[in-house]
């Protein structure tokens, strides 16, 4: 049976509708600071007009009544989704003094026909007199942050921007310079979003943009790290490069899974091109989704630990699911949200493999088709026996962070 229930609905709450029928607002959960993070019940109605506009207007009143807003906050709609249950879900980014607050987002769930708001969930940070302007330059702040992070030969990709970011320790909003940075790490190229304190400099947070381990465009990087590289295959085409062709086919199978099982048109739900690059670097034992480029790349492996990683359907689906996550929930690739990000990719990687190849013992293995070609029967990870790989923990309480 085809299930078109959105991933947003599933992640927000399995009991959204039942919780909403209660009279009056009900706080179902709170964050670490005690601020309501899930409120359901009779919350009001969306006004006339586009859902994204009416949701923002609704939140301006709701935040003052239920979230202790101070008037320093603002909102901007990021994404709207309508499901087959007749509900509309609007993802809204929070602003503070007109600047985005990275890590703060609310979702408004409402009946499409009546406009009745069923629930609001997410993270909200009330203004508390935070400074609205930087006291040191982006260059000064980032230089100190790069040193704190130990980045080797950092290079900015684009200009730095002033923003607020949720401090991972205090859970408060801190004014920071945000910059996308390319550097050389122990495992080769690294691309990170670096947040530097805009008042005194130094590192506040670093978020990797590489998530490792149907309109399709498959390129070859020609054993360089320049992306996307030379175009080899477009939709409906083929290539004599078997590595490229296999990766291209696996991307198509991943699209088919999401479209058939979830009614989703590509990674963003709106038919975007699925861009892949094979032959990345020289004998690279990795594959990754790059948030900033919105594409996937595959290394060829060294022939011992890995063979070309685009040859494993579950690896391809795992990486492309990072793209789905980027468009839907934007889970930061750190700490608990990073663990959820990786977990979802493994789950949907296995689901895609089961959809295409059928259920077998290999369904519960990740990367078995490309990992250690000289050893039969093993895998990169084992979903049915997590500790079998020698480093994974068995269940949630043992490890909160990835």
Brief overview, please?
The chain is of the alpha+beta class.
Task: Kindly describe this structure.
The chain is of the alpha+beta class and 402 residues long. It folds into 3 domains: 116 residues, no CATH class; 71 residues; 188 residues, Elastase, domain 1 (Roll). The protein is 25% helix and 30% strand. A hairpin with a 4-residue loop joins strand 16 and strand 17.
CATH topology of the largest domain: Elastase, domain 1
CATH C-level of the largest domain: Alpha Beta
Distance between the termini: 34 Å
Provide the succession of SSEs. Answer: HHEEHEEEEHEEEEEEEEHEEEHHEE
Low-confidence stretches: 1-22
Structural class by SSE content: alpha+beta
Q: Please give the largest β-sheet.
A: 11 strands, mixed
**Mean pLDDT, nearest integer?**
88
Number of domains: 3
Fold blueprint:
Blueprint: H1 7-12, H2 16-20, E1 26-30, E2 36-40, H3 51-66, E3 73-82, E4 87-96, E5 99-111, E6 117-122, H4 138-149, E7 152-156, E8 161-166, E9 173-185, E10 188-197, E11 203-208, E12 210-212, E13 215-220, E14 230-233, H5 242-262, E15 273-278, E16 287-290, E17 295-298, H6 313-328, H7 335-357, E18 365-366, E19 381-382
Parallel strand pairs: 5-8, 13-15, 15-17
Antiparallel strand pairs: 1-2, 2-6, 3-4, 4-5, 5-6, 7-9, 8-9, 9-10, 10-11, 12-16, 13-14, 16-17, 18-19
Helix pairs in contact: 5-6, 5-7, 6-7
């Amino acid at each position: 049976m085809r299930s078109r229930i959105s991933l947003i609905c599933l992640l927000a709450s399995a009991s959204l509708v039942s919780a909403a029928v209660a009279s009056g607002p009900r706080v179902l959960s709170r964050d670490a600071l005690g601020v309501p993070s899930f409120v359901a019940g009779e919350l009001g109605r969306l006004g006339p007009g586009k859902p994204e506009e009416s949701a923002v207007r609704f939140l301006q009143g709701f935040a003052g009544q239920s979230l202790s807003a101070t008037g320093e906050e603002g909102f901007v709609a990021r994404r709207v989704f309508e499901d087959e249950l007749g509900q509309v879900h609007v993802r809204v980014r929070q602003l503070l003094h007109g600047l985005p607050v990275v890590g703060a987002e609310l979702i408004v769930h409402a009946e499409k026909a009546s406009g009745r708001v069923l629930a609001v969930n997410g993270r909200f940070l009330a203004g508390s007199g935070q400074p609205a302007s930087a006291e040191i330059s982006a260059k000064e702040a980032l230089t100190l942050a790069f040193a704190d992070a130990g980045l080797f030969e950092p290079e900015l990709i684009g200009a730095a921007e002033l923003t607020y970011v949720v401090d991972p320790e205090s859970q408060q909003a801190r004014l920071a310079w945000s910059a996308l940075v390319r550097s050389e790490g122990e495992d080769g190229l690294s691309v990170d979003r670096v947040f530097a304190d805009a008042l005194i400099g130094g590192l506040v947070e670093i978020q990797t943009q590489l998530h490792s381990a149907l309109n399709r465009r498959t390129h070859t990087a020609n054993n360089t790290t320049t992306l996307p590289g030379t175009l080899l295959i477009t939709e409906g085409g083929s290539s004599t490069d078997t590595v490229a062709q296999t990766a291209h086919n696996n991307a198509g199978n991943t699209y088919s899974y999401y479209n058939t099982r979830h009614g989703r048109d590509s990674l963003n739900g709106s038919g975007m091109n699925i861009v892949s690059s094979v032959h990345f670097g020289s004998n690279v034992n990795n594959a990754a989704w790059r948030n900033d480029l919105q594409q996937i790349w595959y290394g060829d492996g060294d022939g011992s630990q890995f063979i070309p990683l685009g040859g494993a359907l579950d690896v391809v689906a795992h990486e492309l699911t990072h793209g789905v996550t980027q468009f839907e929930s934007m889970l930061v690739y750190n700490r608990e949200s990073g663990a959820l990000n990786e977990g979802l990719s493994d789950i949907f990687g296995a689901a895609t493999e089961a959809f295409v190849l059928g259920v077998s013992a290999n369904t519960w293995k990740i990367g078995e088709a490309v990992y250690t070609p000289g050893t039969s029967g093993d895998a990169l990870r084992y979903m049915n026996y997590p500790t079998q790989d020698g480093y994974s923990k068995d269940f949630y309480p043992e490890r909160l962070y990835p």
